[in-house]
Amino acid sequence: MVDRYDRWCLFYDLEILSSPSQGPAYDLVGLVPLLQHRIERNLSVKTIDRDRRILRIAQARALDVGGAPCLSMVMTLGNKTAADPSFIDFDVGTARDADRQPHEAKGASAHCILRTTTTPGHPGRYLMMLEQTTGLGRTTVERLLNSEFATIASDRGDNFISPATGRPVSVRPVAHMSGHKSNQMEEALRTGTFAPIELIDSTPDHTFDEPGVFRPKRRMLRVELVAPPGERRAALEVLSARAREAGYQRMRINWRPAGATRNSDSEIDTDLDDIGEAMFTKRELIHVEAGMSECSHTLRGDFITAMAERFS
Q: Contact 72/302 with Cβ under 8 angstroms?
């Protein structure tokens, strides 16, 4: 349930990759002005699920957080098939439906702060803080950003000369979000349950590159964690080291906290120093004095300020 005064925000590392992978590297600094230009003109829109849902970056604003340049954004989700919101009388118990106007859909929104310079010691990674909102999680936000980046690249005519053919090949930036380390890690390691861990090798193998014929997939291995709770941290660190030695760059961990009914997942790099601390997404509870609604198409200044105070 969405609370009026308190919202959880999750931390991610955003990577900007190239597609195809042998294309030139992208820098977020060069993409941000073009993204802002599209947002200001209400062009940052993507429909999904056969036009039943619509995603939009509704507003963006540059800001400085601790001396680092950042971009604050509010993203919205409109769902045509979602149930209408209702209110209930606290004392009597009668319910009242909110009237939906023509062309309206059930709305939700998520605020975000994105640092536009790379994280020190981690080239190509940008710190991101995202308001936790049903329907606007990592996968959905990635889809929206990748839609925008693909349009920007297409409009600019981004391409590079293929070393194999000597011909120009279209290229675009691809956003990949992975969970930042969690402040709930200790509890999860002690009491959570785990699905098999997926080890991922995303190194491109150009042997199988053949447009229109083959499309290479990532190499993946599933490993079951059977260590008792007290030995899980050490086991994960050993697994990370062995995975890195075997050429796997990432681990995807699916886990369920004690007492929870839903699983959580996190994808992390195997080169991190402490895999036990990095396996779950870090989160902070953000409080505001003035109540917030479920959806806003404009940036809430007080909420962004409160997020910025925890953004590190």
A: no
